[in-house]
Design a protein that fits this description.
The chain is an alpha+beta fold and 522 residues long. Helix content is 25%, strand content 34%. It is elongated and about 130 Å long.
């Protein structure tokens, strides 16, 4: 709209002879400044029209009616009517009078989405592996439209998060559907294993086998690829069931045929310094290494290290999980495939409480405290931690409930209270009594069969710490006796292996705390 500049008429009295009066008009001077109205940046959709105006003034800031020349890389007429192109982008409009010029910025934004696309349209990946899908949307003129899509798996297995990261199931084809403002399109992802291959790492040769839950890297002779892979897959399934959640990552499991190869692999491949009694290690978020020749059965070792990954993933970097709980949960999840571990954990913890040798939980919460304690008492530290963890889990209802609270950023004291409804201080104060109640008599003997080879494992408990005892084992046809020393917890662990004929044996233990007997079945 053109503005009408008012003409100011001033009556001036002239002191001339005869009293004559004269009239004079004060008109605007030449243009000295120019501005485009509106002056703020303009944002409009494609093909929209917008009318610009100019504000031209002289040196005394009076409005001047001179019309500017309008120019732009986009269409604009001589009256300043701007027509937005169909391509989104930034455009500029100029109004000029001679050397005077003003510029305005116009952003042509994309219109509403009309078509959408998912990339990649098809994907092939290993079971439990991940692939990132992305969404593209376009308006009716072909401009790319920024959108926040909704993702879901509409057929097959697997899961997808709000960022479009798809985690495959164990096998098969999945359909991933993306929705943007009511417009939907889909992609497919196929989970399938790839053939075995040979790889070199850290100067070592590996055969890499694809499992349902892990890439298994085999080093050394005598390892059956199918058996090892099945064991690892079973361990993952079992731990996922125990903790009530799935790992976010496909695992990378390094399996070594011997302890010597395991130690070399830790140093050269994983850059980890091995220790004499170590059978497995974990490196977050998804690496595990196992000595397949370890004293514990391979699936127990796998369950232990995989549990560590779950606990670490749940806690993230928000919460420092006490080492006694980290190692306790890991050992606890060995119990279903290691009855002897469960037996030793129960009765040696009971014995420790009975002879007042239980450590304070606060003293074994940190890495330094835990390592010092293990160096002092040995592997029974893990058995004690497992029994304490079992009490915590029982009170919290489940491992899943406990990890949910830890995953929410709560330290163990608060997580325990939130999951159980009880103060953690009460748990600590009652721990000794609960441990003593694990056995119904002191001293005593408890036994079980070991799953790996059928041998009978027994625990003599309730004797003083680190003291000598005598053990006699016999039946009508066979027998034997020996002396033993109890460990720090006042218990001694024995074995009736394959050299003992099958049958029922009477075991008698004599020590400073008294005599205990039990029947063992071999």
């Amino acid at each position: 709209m053109r503005k009408v500049v008012p003409i100011v008429v001033v009556c001036v009295t002239l002191a001339l002879a005869g009293g004559i009066y004269a009239w004079s008009e004060i008109v605007p001077g030449p243009p000295m400044s120019i501005a485009i109205v509106p002056g703020d940046e303009l944002v409009i959709p494609p093909t929209t029209q917008f009318q610009f105006a100019s504000d031209v003034r002289d040196a005394r800031n009076r409005v001047v009616g001179t019309k500017p020349a309008w120019t732009s890389e986009a269409p604009i007429d001589d009256r300043g009517l701007f027509t937005a192109p169909d391509r989104a982008g930034v455009y500029y409009v100029q109004a000029a009078i001679g050397e005077l010029a003003a510029t305005a910025k116009i952003t042509v934004k994309p219109g509403a989405p009309r078509t959408v696309r998912v990339l990649p349209a098809t994907a092939s990946l290993k079971p439990r592996d991940t692939v990132a899908f992305s969404a593209s949307a376009f308006d009716e003129w072909g401009n790319s439209v920024p959108v926040t899509p909704t993702w879901r798996v509409t057929a097959g297995g697997g899961a997808i998060d709000e960022q479009g990261i798809f985690t495959a199931g164990v096998s098969g084809v999945s359909t991933i559907t993306m929705d943007v403002e009511g417009i939907a399109t889909s992609a497919t992802a196929t989970a399938q294993c790839v053939p075995p291959r040979t790889e070199m790492a850290g100067g070592l040769t590996f055969t890499v086998v694809c499992g349902a839950y892990a890439d298994v890297w085999l080093n050394g002779k005598g390892l059956d690829a199918a058996s090892v892979t099945t064991t690892i897959d079973q361990a993952v399934v079992a731990v996922e069931a125990a903790v009530g959640r799935s790992l976010r990552h496909r695992l990378n499991v390094n399996v070594f045929a011997t302890k010597a190869a395991f130690d070399i692999g830790l140093k050269q491949v994983l850059r980890v310094e091995p220790t004499p009694l170590e059978e497995g290690v974990f490196i977050p978020p998804a690496i595990v290494a196992i000595d397949w020749s370890g004293a514990d059965i391979p699936e127990a070792i796998a369950r232990h290290e995989i549990t560590h990954l779950f606990v670490d993933e749940a806690a993230g970097r928000r919460v420092a999980v006490p080492f006694w709980l980290h190692e306790g949960l890991a050992t606890l999840n060995e119990f279903p495939v290691s009855a002897d571990t469960a037996l030793i954990s129960r009765y040696c913890t009971a014995s420790a409480a009975n002879v007042n040798q239980m450590p304070a939980l606060s003293s074994i919460a940190t890495g330094a405290g835990w390592r010092a304690y293990v160096n002092d008492v040995g592997v029974i530290a893990y058995y004690f931690a497992a029994q304490v963890a079992s009490f915590v889990v029982a009170d919290a209802v489940s491992q899943s409930n406990l990890l949910d609270k830890i995953g929410g950023g709560l330290p163990i004291e608060s997580a325990y209270s939130a999951a159980s409804g009880r103060p953690f201080e009460t748990f600590v104060s009652q721990l000794g009594d609960r441990a003593v109640a694990l056995a119904d008599r002191y001293p005593g003997i408890a036994s079980t069969s070991r799953q790996s080879d059928g041998a009978t494992v027994y625990v003599a408990y309730g004797q003083p710490s680190e003291t000598g005892i005598s053990v006699n084992i016999s039946n009508a046809r066979f027998g034997g006796s020996n002396s033993a020393t109890t460990n720090h917890y006042g218990c001694a662990i024995g074995l009736l292996g394959n050299s003992w004929p099958r049958g029922t044996y009477l075991v008698t233990v004599n020590g400073p705390a008294g005599r205990a007997t039990a029947n063992l079945v071999r």
